[in-house]
């Protein structure tokens, strides 16, 4: 029959996904950013839509096509991403894959000139969008964060899960060739423990995660 768990396990659900980097302008021609291709987040948005969910994808600047069946909202900065996420609520579940820049620079309306010497930027902390959702009265029932780490992957992910009030943290070790690549080795940190998956194509990580989300919702 149609609408069974395998084909449409998320029919009628609204899922929110963030993906890509954010760009924080230093002046009209320069920015600060985290490294992110957006591939893992876009694959997750596509996999959730393939299971029948209505998907809102809040995306930083990336060079990727919008997956079929996904509503995409383009943003540039972390503050814009936070506003777009808030505007997309309510959602049954959220998967925060974006590599959000942790700081922004003060507004600079005109181009900083090299001849004036190296700028001493007073960086200002950005809103933590996952933490904001975790503590919101509109908190999605299932809240999934990501953590890209180079050391003590599980320990950092466990700490982030608690600090941000997330249900699961999908942790990956980025000391290898994950960035911009097609494969990912992830560990799912939940209330009950850690599940480690073998190295998989990012699309396969997305399909498995979407199945797990459908089961949880
Ligand atoms: N995140 C977010 N908003 C931020 C920073 C992070 O929503 N301003 C989300 C990311 O999308 C990810 C999770 O929080 O799902 C973990 O991001 P990460 O950068 O690993 O965590 P931080 O708390 O910023 O810690 P770190 O010092 O390791 O960068
Ligand atoms: Ca960060």
UniProtKB/TrEMBL annotation:
Bound cofactor: record note: Binds 1 FMN per subunit.
Top-rank lineage group of the source organism: Bacteria
Pathway recorded for this protein: Cofactor biosynthesis; coenzyme A biosynthesis; CoA from (R)-pantothenate: step 3/5; Cofactor biosynthesis; coenzyme A biosynthesis; CoA from (R)-pantothenate: step 2/5
Span list, region Phosphopantothenate--cysteine ligase: 15-217
Recorded GO MF terms: phosphopantothenate--cysteine ligase activity; phosphopantothenoylcysteine decarboxylase activity
EC number: 4.1.1.36, 6.3.2.5
Enzymatic reactions: (R)-4'-phosphopantothenate + L-cysteine + CTP = N-[(R)-4-phosphopantothenoyl]-L-cysteine + CMP + diphosphate + H(+); N-[(R)-4-phosphopantothenoyl]-L-cysteine + H(+) = (R)-4'-phosphopantetheine + CO2
DNA/pantothenate metabolism flavoprotein C-terminal domain: residues covered: 10-215
Keywords of this entry: Decarboxylase, Flavoprotein, FMN, Ligase, Lyase, Magnesium, Metal-binding, Multifunctional enzyme
Binding site for CTP: 102, 111, 127-130, 146, 160, 164
Claim: Membrane is one of the keywords in the record: no
Keyword Signal: no
CC cofactor: FMN; Mg(2+)
Role: Catalyzes two sequential steps in the biosynthesis of coenzyme A. In the first step cysteine is conjugated to 4'-phosphopantothenate to form 4-phosphopantothenoylcysteine. In the second step the latter compound is decarboxylated to form 4'-phosphopantotheine. Catalyzes two steps in the biosynthesis of coenzyme A. In the first step cysteine is conjugated to 4'-phosphopantothenate to form 4-phosphopantothenoylcysteine, in the latter compound is decarboxylated to form 4'-phosphopantotheine.
Similarity annotation: In the C-terminal section; belongs to the PPC synthetase family.
Annotated protein name in UniProt: Coenzyme A biosynthesis bifunctional protein CoaBC
Source organism of the structure: Stakelama flava
